[in-house]
Amino acid sequence: MTSLEIRDLGVQFSGVSILHNLSLTVESGQFAAVLGPSGCGKTTLLRSIAGLITPAAGTIRFGKQLVSVSSLVLPPHKRNIGYVPQEGGLFPHLSVFENVAFSLGKLDKTEKAPIVEEMLNLVGLSGFEHRMPQQLSGGQQTRVALARALAMKPAMVLLDEPFAALDQALQAEISEEVAALLKRTKTTTIMVTHDREDALVSADVIALMRKGQVVQYGSPAEVYRQPISADVALSTGDVVTLPAFKDEGEEVTSPLHTHSFDLQPNGDLLIRPEEIRISLEKQDQGVRAEISKINYYGHDALLELKLPGYPMPIRARVAAPLDFTVGQEIYAHVEGPLRWVPRKATHQ
Amino acid sequence: MSKKAHGEATKASHVPFGLITAALFSLIFIAIPLVYLLRRALEGNWRSLNALLFREKTAQIFTTTTSLVIIVSLMASVLGVSLAWSLHNVKIPMRNLQQALVILPIAIPSYVFTFSWISINPSISGFWAAVFILVLSTTPYVSLAALSGLRRVDWSQHEVAMTLGLNPFRTFVKITLPQIRNSVAAGTLLVALYVLSDFGAVSLLGVDTFTRSISNLYRGSFDRSSAAVLALILVMLSATLIAIESRARGKARQSRSSARLLKQPILINSRGTKLTAQILIALYLVLGLITPMGLLLLRFFNSAATIDYPSLFSASISTIVAASLGALISISLALPIGLLVITGSRLGNLADKGVLLVHALPGIVMGLALVAFGSEFPWLYQTLGLLAFSYALLFMAKSVGSVRSALTRVPQNLIDISATLGKSRAQTFRAVILPLAAPGVLTGTLLVLLAAMKELPATLMLRPTGFETLATEMWALTAISRFSEAAPYALFLVLIAAIPTFLINRPDRGSNEEGDIA
Question: Global pTM?
């Protein structure tokens, strides 16, 4: 397994810049998730790593080997990369065995068989050798595609929204299995996804992408807890942003805070909904609020709270069981760090 | 965005030198008939050409040809759509079988149709007889296109329209028809091209269209450049039709939805509709399939004792050999062009246009052009090779079309994956692209084979002396009204042509694209 280092990557299509000055480092054996909305350039990044497109600028290194520098690129078939595209991309004219053995080249069938068997065993599909891709379910196809990628002992595995086509229940199960397998085999993995849960659950590190750049990089906990902006925070979970201001007594406070703190100029407070605590009776720091709406999710719920003197409703997450009603008066306070993000224009 | 990335990635890759060389070869071959046709036309005496162009007779030929094309196209499209609709939407017995039977007349050449009708009544002739016969023999082109269009219409739209208060007829007009319009247009243009280049039916029925006049001028005088001038007018007409057709076909492609399963119609079960639909289909089958085939069989068995079996056998072999050779040449010229076209290179686009141009040459014109070519290379003139070459060029558009659509249907992501799995481009071509495109390439070969077996005018002009195919034997005997002797050749031709027809439409391979069989 090898590490990946991308420096100042730039990709353009017909004069339109898709990636610019993108840098990213993934350690050997790490599982990295690239998370971002569709159209942000995730797939282009993955295809650049695979060598399927020629970047206009920047360098890509696998370990110490330079595989891409300006227009000099190592062709994909010399990169030793396991690429698993959306929906698996199995060759429809080849059996499961032949698909998995595809990269094994000139080996005898007797030499290929143990490798294929090992790989199918790894993905839990022993005995499926003679099936054709059309005879497999979506989840099985994804797993065969992974076995095919792993059979060549790749330097790293690239997953392009591998679970997007599966139904939701299966998605969680397969993505967990696949992540566990790739971590167990210490495979350097880059997974592109727009599903935040997928990324948070599976990855060692998450790279958040916006408009052709990696805007934040870190462990799932880091990118969740310390987002660099309200916009980026949204890609890992729900957020509440609140303005902080000085009141008449020159005390710095917010609609949800009763105590004073140091003001950060041009900053907003960013709060995750689960950091807002609800109590039925007034406590020291509690702010009186009215429940204006309840979004019930089963295991928990989001309450929309109307704060006195603040026009926007804010959302608080509460765990089940739930005994609130719309219109009820409660007290809310924040339990968590003071987290500043650059102020949005709308809060002025 | 990722789609765009695919396109760019393919374009960025450079085209192998060997491929370019092969495609250039194909282009040179394509140019031969065009160059020689032009040369022939231009070498004539200008005054006599002028007289030929502007005499009343030419105007008559023009009017006859265009009226025939327009009337047959309109009638075939109405009949074809009605048949397709009845087969697709009405609960008739043995629906699949009836669908297959309605398409079958495609395997019967127009001159065999004509032969079987005039052998019933030798006095049948003239414009309206030609309309009758050509409508019967071209309707399947429209039915096939309309059927494949209808299969792509999502019935749930129909149901929604009904809940919005439209009656079934208005639903058909407002919802279904607009969606199959492009397919039907493409099918109708195929009919128009067929009629424009038809030689057999109009010659037997004595209708003076361009093809018949060209043939008469060619045979009746030593002034072959006059024939070439008429041929050029014909080529211009057919090039116009092809330009319209390729545009219509492009639109039909765009409207194609993805592979998702579409809701198929709930079949109409009302007695009146069923009866009307079944009568219409039965009437078509009686006139278009049962009568001609029954007649051929009847004549065959009546004269079974007197049939010249050795000559029937040798004509069958000749037909198969010449057509197979033509199909092989055609696919080997088409493969590099198809490959080049999908790489998006400029040479590929040029070659594609060139193929369309030769596609505009009717059989009689191709014959004329290659006779001119052969007269400069006597060692080629009247050889099996030149005949096969004429088939290859005449029907190359079919093979290029199939090759191209087979290649473009190989998903780009499979090619990418193969590359990441360590295969070079040549290895990917062998291991992924070729196996996935093989059925389409085979279809392309079979289409040329079928068309070449049925070909008549170019075969008449270019065959080696003493080399008789089923088509030429049948033609010669019909021309002297020896219908009983001609029948076995016609029957064998239809039977042999039925083999590739069957292989192309093999039920287990799913439905074909509209116009594939043409």
Answer: 0.74
Straight-line distance from the first to the last Cα atom of chain B, in angstroms, rounded to the nearest whole number: 37
How many angstroms separate the CA atoms of B463 and B476, rounded?
14
Tokens 């065993």 sit at which residue?
A121
In whole angstroms, give the CA distance from residue A167 to residue A142.
13
Collapse the DSSP code of B194 into the 3-class scheme (helix H, G, I; strand E, B; otherwise coil) and give the result. helix
Helix and strand numbers (H, E) in chain B are 26, 0
- B5 CB neighbours in chain A (<8 A) are 13, 18, 43-44, 47, 52-53
Q: Please report where in the chains the tokens 């902006």 appear, as a residue.
A: A229
Instruction: Fill in the amino acid letter for B147.
Output: L
Contact state of A85 with B9 under an 8 Å Cβ cutoff: no
CB atoms within 10 A of CB A345: 5
DSSP H or E stretch at residue A7: strand A4-13
Q: Do B421 and A103 touch (CB under 8 A)?
A: yes
Helices (H) and strands (E) in chain A, counts: 8, 21
| Number of Cβ atoms within 10 Å of the Cβ of B134 | 28
Contacts of residue B151, Cβ cutoff 8 Å, sequence gap at least 6:
B88, B262, B264, B511
ipTM: 0.73
Put simply, whether B344 touches A (Cβ < 8 Å) is no
What are the tens digits of pLDDT across the range B247-294? 766 555 444 444 445 667 778 778 888 999 999 999 999 999 999 999
Smallest Cβ–Cβ distance between B422 and the set A44, A54, A77 belongs to A77
Q: Is some CB atom of chain A closer than 8 A to the CB atom of B2?
A: yes
Q: Where are the alpha helices (DSSP H) in B289-345?
A: 291-302, 309-343
